[in-house]
Design a protein that fits this description.
By secondary structure, the protein is an alpha/beta fold. The protein is built from 15 helices and 18 strands. It has 3 domains: 310 residues, Alpha-Beta Barrel (TIM Barrel), CATH 3.20.20.80; 55 residues, Alpha-Beta Complex (Oligo-1,6-glucosidase, domain 2), CATH 3.90.400; 60 residues, Golgi alpha-mannosidase II (Immunoglobulin-like, Sandwich), CATH 2.60.40.1180. The chain binds 1-deoxynojirimycin.
Length: 546
């Protein structure tokens, strides 16, 4: 692989607490992950991205970090982390870790010192403490609300308030404070020095706030001037981070988690002296619809071509409902960001697992054929669905409580993986262990072991696709050309003679004369591409079949 491996890599996301449990305490850990590295190699991915593994009181699944230079004892030790990196590298896998710079945990020593210190002290300056409004300061300093629901401010015993755009246990850092900047630069080096290949930057678009912390007015702010989203000053931070990444002999990389609606604004993060890539949430939020998928692909490519950055393609992650469940329903208003179908809507849109599976198979062939890098979320290769009936008392996502029990949150996509066997824990942990979220009994049909030797399984499709992707120079980074097709079919060519066609919702579509089928997501119908099916082709030209 070249040093620009990230331009075309397939990256597999490990939500570590739900991947594999080596210790038997019901929580996935580094030991479990190390034992499953051969599975990942066989899956044919190029890199793994691991969600936060730092010490954490778990008020937001580990995105509340109490110490950035260590590993939570439930997940392992720093020494095990180093072993994991070494073993992954030996097996040809790069490793990317999450970094959480917008906020810490309230258990972080900085926040504890800030609470012990007085209003106006240097310790409080690490965070955004302010006096309240109202006669006795009893009202929050402004009208901002938390992403998880409820006010974005919590009052401390001496009367001041602190800002938390997420859970109260996640105080926002003050990025105007040079000590915060210096500390994060040191944290990057700490992990880079241990061989970490890159970072996924959490909430990369919200770290910098308008110093005046003004109320939100409801009016659309001028680009770069929203009180806390996508502010122009962020780019100075990333220019500095890029210099650090580039100072390593094998340059390290960044992928931004930035829910920025305007693709041209998002592209600014990816200028050559800033971040390498950003998740393509525009594409992730597209329903199963040819026109919308095509428009998103075009928007992405157009915006990124201005800065020379590769696209990333992603269907699922730990914050959104699994795509099998999104695609296995009639189109519904899908929420932005971490939101999903509201509880009240679920009953009206029952999930059709067969339909969702068929479309998910087609979707991954589209994903892996598009130019750029692709992100897979653990379990999608097994065809897992969103678990929508977790018992209320099992739910851990702060969204559930902060929304006043209106939004069940994201636990349904974080249920521990089924590896083998006929009953829970399905090989996730040793027999007799109890996974931290209950697994549906129906997942016995979807275990990795069961799919292992089934040529028609989802797992096998993923393996076939990554194998071909490595074998075909046309795939990965590069360009594509749309072909002329009916509206409900998308087809494009890459390189010299590779073609991908997806029938979203049209009558069976005749494959081009002379084309050889390299891979199909489902059965073809005598040279016709049925609805909800995708195919990879070589030779022949798809043009003119419209
Ligand atoms: C985005 C992460 O992906 C999500 O899981 C987390 O809750 C928020 N950022 C806050 O850190």
């Amino acid at each position: 692989m070249t040093t620009q491996w990230w331009r075309g890599a397939v990256v597999y996301q490990i939500y570590i607490r739900s991947f594999a449990d080596g210790s038997g305490d019901g929580v996935g850990d580094i030991a479990g992950l190390r034992a499953r590295l051969p599975y990942l190699q066989r899956l044919g991915v190029d890199a793994i991205w691991i969600n936060p593994w730092y010490p954490s009181p778990l008020e937001d699944g580990g995105y509340d970090v109490a110490g950035y230079r260590d590993v939570d004892p439930v997940l392992g030790t720093l020494a095990e982390a180093e072993q994991l990196i070494a073993e992954a590298h030996a097996g040809g896998l790069r490793v990317i870790l999450d970094i959480v710079p917008n906020h810490t945990s309230k258990a972080h020593p900085w926040f504890r010192s800030a609470l012990d210190a007085k209003p106006g002290s240097a310790e409080r300056d690490f965070y955004l403490f302010r006096d309240g409004r109202g006669r006795d300061g009893e009202l929050p300093p402004n009208n901002w609300t938390s992403v998880f629901g409820g006010p974005a401010w919590t009052r401390v015993p001496d009367g001041q308030w602190y800002l938390h755009l997420f859970a109260p246990g996640q105080p926002d850092l003050n990025w105007a404070e040079p000590r915060v900047r210096a500390e994060f630069e040191a944290i990057l080096r700490f992990w880079f020095d241990r061989g970490m290949d890159g970072f996924r930057i959490d909430v990369a678009n919200m770290m910098v706030k308008d110093p005046a912390l003004p109320d939100l007015t409801g009016k659309v702010a001028a680009p770069g001037h929203h009180p806390y989203e996508d502010r122009d000053e962020l780019h100075d931070i990333y220019r500095r981070w890029r210099q650090i990444a580039d100072s390593y002999s094998e340059p390290r990389v960044f992928v931004a988690e930035a829910w920025v609606d305007d693709q041209d604004r998002l592209a600014l993060y990816l200028r050559p002296d800033e971040l390498h890539t950003a998740f393509n949430f525009d594409f992730l939020t597209v329903p199963w619809d040819a026109a919308q998928a095509r428009a998103s692909i075009d928007r992405t490519r157009h915006a990124l071509s201005a800065v020379g950055a590769p696209a990333t393609w992603v269907l699922s992650n730990h914050d959104v409902a699994r795509h099998l469940s999104r695609f296995g329903r009639p189109p519904h208003p899908q929420g932005r960001g971490i939101r999903y179908v509201q509880l009240s809507q679920l009953a009206q849109c029952p999930l059709d697992i067969e339909l969702g599976t068929r479309r998910s198979r087609a979707a991954v062939l589209l994903l892996l054929a598009l130019p750029g890098s692709a992100y897979l979320y653990q379990g999608e290769e097994l065809g897992l669905w969103e678990v929508e009936d977790l018992p209320d008392d099992a739910l851990r996502d702060p969204t559930w409580t902060q929304s006043g029990h209106l939004d069940r949150g994201r636990d349904g996509c974080r249920v521990p993986l089924p590896w083998s066997g006929d009953a829970a824990p399905f090989g996730f942990g040793p027999p007799g262990s109890t996974p931290w979220l209950p697994q549906p009994p129906e997942w016995k049909k979807l275990t990795a072991a069961r799919q292992e030797d089934d040529p028609g399984s989802m797992l096998q499709l993923y393996r076939d696709a990554t194998e071909l992707r490595h074998a075909l120079p046309a795939l990965g980074d590069g360009t594509m050309r749309w072909l002329d097709t009916p509206d409900e079919v998308l087809a494009f060519e890459r390189g010299d003679g590779f073609g991908c066609a997806v029938n979203f919702d049209a009558d069976p579509w005749p494959l081009p004369d002379g084309a050889t089928v390299l891979l199909a997501s489902g059965p073809l119908d005598d040279g016709l591409l049925p609805r909800d099916t995708a195919v990879w082709l070589c030779g022949g030209r798809t043009a003119g079949n419209g």
